[in-house]
C-alpha cells in the first residue's frame, strides 16, 4: 500500500520522478481500510524539501499511511504562507486527536539554549501531548536532543567543530526490533554541533542506546517501551543535502570543513555517492511495523489506554 498525502502536495510530483508511488487523498478514500495515522511536526525552515525526504522513507511500507503535516503557531515562517495554509494544520487544531505515529523533525537551532527558542513552551506542550495521544514518536536530530533534555534533563554538549559527513555505525543493542535486518556496519549522514554524552545516557534507566560510533557518539536511542525513538543523524537526507549545506557555508565565508566520507577523493567538485538510503528505508519501516502498527489499537480513541510498558530490547 502507498502512503496518502494531501492532493497537490509538491512531494507527489517529486517522488513520482523517483518511481515512488504516493496516493493522493481522493484515491485513498475509495479503499476500505483503516490506514495508519502519522503526524509530522515539521520544524525545518525549508519545509517542502523535508516533506519530500520523509514521504520518501515512509513510502517503503505495505501499510497505507495517512500523513498529516503540522506546524506550531510561533515558528518563524520561511516557507510560503500559501503552502502552509494549503497543506499544514496548527498543532492547536489537532491536539484533541490521537495518532498512531508522530515524527518531529530537526531544526537549525543546535547552538541555542532551549529556553531561548521562541516556540520552546509550545514544543514542551507537544512533547507532553505525544505521550498521551501517540503510540510512538520518532525524533530527528535537534528534536531528539530537545526531547531527551525535556524528558530526562540531559543537556547536549556543543562540539568544537561541526559534525558533518557520512559516518559508519554499528549495532550496540542488536535485539531491539528497530535493528532487525540491519547489517553489522551501515552509514548515516550527520550535520550538527550538539552531542549528548553517552555516559549520561547510560545513567538513565529508561533509555536504551541502540547504535552509534566512536566518531558520532550515540545515534539511535529509545525508551524501554518504544513510545519514544531518538535519532541524532539524518537518514532522510537527499544525496546533495550535505553538499548544499557545505556550499552555503562556503559562500557565507564560514570556512567549513569538507563533509567527512562524502565526496569521492574528498573533492567537492565530484558528485557524492548515496550510501545511506537502504538504511533509511529499513529504519523507518521497522519503526512503523514494530513500534506503531503492531502495537497501536484499531480504535485510535484507545491510544492513551494502550501505552506500552514492555521492554523492547529484551
UniProtKB/TrEMBL annotation:
Residue numbers marked as site, Important for acyl-CoA specificity: 110
Annotated catalytic residues: 141 (acyl-thioester intermediate), 234 (proton acceptor), 236
Protein name: Homoserine O-succinyltransferase
UniProt site positions, description: Important for substrate specificity: 191
Coiled-coil annotated residue ranges, if any: none
Signal sequence region: none
Similarity comment: family membership: Belongs to the MetA family.
Top EC category: transferase
Organism: Psychrosphaera aquimarina
E.C. numbers: 2.3.1.46
Domain of life: Bacteria
Entry keywords, A to Z: Acyltransferase, Amino-acid biosynthesis, Cytoplasm, Methionine biosynthesis, Transferase
GO MF: homoserine O-succinyltransferase activity
Positions contributing to substrate binding: 162, 191, 248
Catalytic activities: L-homoserine + succinyl-CoA = O-succinyl-L-homoserine + CoA
Transferase is among the record's keywords: yes
Intracellular or extracellular location(s): Cytoplasm
Pathway annotation: Amino-acid biosynthesis; L-methionine biosynthesis via de novo pathway; O-succinyl-L-homoserine from L-homoserine: step 1/1
Record's function text: Transfers a succinyl group from succinyl-CoA to L-homoserine, forming succinyl-L-homoserine.
SUPFAM superfamilies: Class I glutamine amidotransferase-like (SSF52317)
Amino acid at each position: 500500500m502507498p502512503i496518502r498525502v494531501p492532493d497537490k502536495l509538491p512531494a507527489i510530483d517529486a517522488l513520482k520522478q523517483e518511481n515512488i508511488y504516493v496516493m493522493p487523498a481522493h484515491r485513498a478514500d475509495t479503499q476500505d481500510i483503516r490506514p495508519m495515522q502519522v503526524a509530522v511536526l515539521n520544524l525545518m525552515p525549508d519545509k517542502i524539501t523535508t516533506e519530500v525526504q520523509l514521504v520518501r522513507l515512509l513510502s517503503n511500507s505495505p501499510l497505507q499511511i495517512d500523513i498529516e503535516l503540522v506546524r506550531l503557531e510561533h515558528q518563524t515562517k520561511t516557507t510560503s504562507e500559501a503552502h502552509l495554509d494549503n497543506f499544514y494544520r496548527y498543532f492547536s487544531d489537532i491536539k484533541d486527536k490521537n495518532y498512531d505515529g508522530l515524527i518531529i523533525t530537526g531544526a537549525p537551532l543546535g547552538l541555542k539554549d532551549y529556553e531561548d527558542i521562541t516556540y520552546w513552551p509550545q514544543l514542551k506542550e507537544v512533547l507532553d501531548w505525544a505521550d498521551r495521544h501517540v503510540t510512538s514518536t520518532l525524533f530527528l536530530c535537534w528534536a531528539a536532543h530537545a526531547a531527551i533534555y525535556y524528558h530526562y534533563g540531559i543537556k547536549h554538549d556543543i562540539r568544537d567543530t561541526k559534525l558533518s559527513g557520512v559516518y559508519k555505525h554499528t549495532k550496540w543493542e542488536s535485539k531491539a526490533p528497530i535493528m532487525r535486518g540491519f547489517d553489522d556496519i551501515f552509514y548515516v549522514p550527520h550535520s550538527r554541533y550538539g552531542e549528548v554524552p553517552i555516559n549520561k545516557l547510560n545513567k538513565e534507566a529508561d533509555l536504551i542506546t541502540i547504535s552509534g560510533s566512536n566518531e558520532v557518539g550515540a545515534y539511535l536511542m529509545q525508551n524501554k517501551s518504544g513510545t519514544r525513538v531518538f535519532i541524532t543523524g539524518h537518514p532522510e537526507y537527499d544525496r546533495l543535502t550535505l553538499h548544499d549545506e557545505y556550499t552555503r557555508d562556503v559562500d557565507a565565508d564560514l570556512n567549513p570543513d569538507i563533509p567527512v566520507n562524502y565526496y569521492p577523493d574528498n573533492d567537492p567538485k565530484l558528485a557524492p555517492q548515496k550510501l545511506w538510503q537502504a538504511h533509511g528505508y529499513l529504519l523507518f519501516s521497522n519503526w512503523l511495523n514494530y513500534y506503531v502498527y503492531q502495537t497501536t489499537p484499531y480504535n485510535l480513541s484507545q491510544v492513551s489506554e494502550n501505552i506500552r510498558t514492555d521492554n523492547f530490547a529484551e
